[in-house]
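Our preliminary data section would be incomplete without showing what the modeling component actually yields. Below, a chain of 328 amino acids is followed by its predicted structure, encoded as tokens that our downstream tools consume directly.
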Amino acid sequence: MSFVSENGGVVRESWPRWMAAIVGIVCICAGIWQLEYERSGLSIESLAVGTTPATVYRRAGGAKAPAVVIAHGFAGSRQLMEAYALTLAQAGYVAVSFDFEGHGRNPTPMSGDVTRIDGTTRLLMSELGRVIDAVLGLPYVDGRIALLGHSMASDIVVRKAIADPRVMATVAVSMFSEAVTATQPRNLLVVTGQWEAFLRNEALHKLRLAEPSAVEGSTAGDPERGTGRRAVVAPHVEHVGVLHSPTALEEARNWLDSAFKRQSAGRVASTGGPVALLLFGIVLLAWPLSQLLPKGEAAPSPVPLPTFAVALFFCAFQAIVITDSRPS
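Predicted structure:
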């Protein structure tokens, strides 16, 4: 913005950039504050299982409780699954998330043939098994365990739950798995986003293996006896948004309560809004900060605003959800 002064000179005001900087900083601070608030009252500790890095979430000073091992999807990390870890920890569970080989801060590359069950899938199942063994050895775990996995990991946790009789319940988010049968794995909850049409149909198909007349949102079998089946839809979300959906988080907690015969208290983590606010603040702050860069002799070709905005968004997203700023 500019205006003409009394002596005819042109005075350029920088207040729009200052306002953008202030609003950006406020958004960033508000997002960080909300994310930290969701961790309040919890003990968050690092756990190393060989070369596999993991994070343990639990109520500070809480009694022994069942454990839930949480697995991320392809190209993800344990940070993407934090809303589930926080919600379950606030409910009194010991929630443990980890980075698969080739993901996050795991230094071991992913290996094996990704097209064969006896290839990469089997290797990831073995890694999950080592994490389960380590978690069951923690002094504050009462010997009971459940699994939760998203996308790629939904098939991993389903197959591991079928093979490991210690697993009492499974939550599969955005699931596709050919291993599901009418009775296996025990106590299966399938959660999909409203905008995941193919996976919604797959979830309903698996539910109807146990109860042919079942519909979305219904429960077949009895979770207390290990025969429970349920398929639910999280409204207004897709493959990533389902990881922050209050409906999905609450359904996962309630399902595990049914399987473990518990009644949990505690808030459902609100992470989607704060992450969006944080992203918006970073993108907004980039404009005034860009003015601090040295000026070149020749002006570069202008970048279209939509292209610039998309590039900033994905850079900010990667910085937030892939870079782990907490202990590991």
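Confidence is low (pLDDT under 50) at residues 1-11, 320-328. The first helix runs from residue 15 to 38. Preliminary results of this kind motivate Aim 1 of the renewal.
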